[in-house]
Amino acid sequence: MKTIKTITFIIKSTLASLCLLGATMAAAAEPQHWVAAWGTAQLVAEGDNVLPAQHWRDSSLRQVVRLSLGGQRVRIRLSNVFGTAPLQVEAASVALAPRLGKADVDGATLRALKFNGRGQVLIPAGAEFYSDPVDLPVAAGVDVAISLHFKGEPARQTGHPGARTSSYLLPGNRVTDAAWPEAQAVPRWYVISDVEVLAGAATRAFVAIGDSITDGYGVVNDSNTRWTDVLAGRLRAANLPVGVVNAGIGGGRLLRDGLGPNLSARFLRDVTGRAGVTHALVFIGVNDMGGQHRNGSDTPADRQRLLADMQSAYRQLADQAHAHGVCLLGATVTPYSGSGYYHPEKENEEDRVALNDWIRNSGVFDHVVDFDAALRDPARPAYMDKAYDSGDGLHPSAAGYRALADAVPLSVLNQPCKVRP
Question: Is the pTM of this model over 0.90?
């Protein structure tokens, strides 16, 4: 009897081991692809956003970003897209940055970045280059630091001034030093474009593209409380494998350049050019309408032409998204009647209402996210609710940013994108 029990035990143990081995092999064999876990939109650094030349000359720049996805391997995309001459990066590294708002990194996680096996790279004018992949286990919600060493300043600087996150500067090549106790902080990003993780086939990315409300105007520096950050937290809490990329530019417009290129011109690079993107949301328009009222001719004919031009541009964005297998969500324009900057009048509010009605009912978008309904004052729908207004009548408060994040249905991002013919 003991012999039979022993044989039975051996058989069961063997079967269990085989099942475990099979599961392990299946996991190892799962198709993987690169997915954007963080990204930002690029523009020309001008005026106060220009990093002084002495901070490029034989200097190191350490920049901290928060990832929305985890993985075992990462790679970094560097950008010289607005440069007018090649950009030489002399050395680079990546590491976990456990203390938000501090320049130091976890030395045990520090990895040198290579480019085709070399420690330095020349990025041509107008180009963006990937680093070689590195083994660096990361979890969704962690901060990583990308350190770059330069010998000289770019001919024209590419970056993202609205980082609302501290970057750090030190003289010399310090990219492999974990501690930067004497570093100088600057609240901008330069050269970095994306952090991607190698993830399973079900993992994907969502890109939000828009203006200063998406860029996070007014959030506390290093707080990571833009509406896209809050949305990324919701996705993590729901255990959904969806990364979030913020492609907002403060002052951005749909049709005309502002503080950066117009959204129509940058859509392919900033949305469909991201790794693993399946869904995107476009949230734009207040600067187009407000800017015309503030700075240009605002006759009834001009306003009608602007609305027609914006609708045409939206259709083009949807067509471009669908051509790349991306579902496009359209967000309604939030109230701005209280704006002391644009001083909108009754006619401008009528145009905003008309545009929002078109966004909701045109059928151009795969889904509509009603940001207007999320923030407006029920008693005065031309205005933001006071609880959601930062005080300028245009940009949301911290509570307003949370309300925008809550208005995005996770169920839409969790379902496969089925692009319409």
Answer: yes
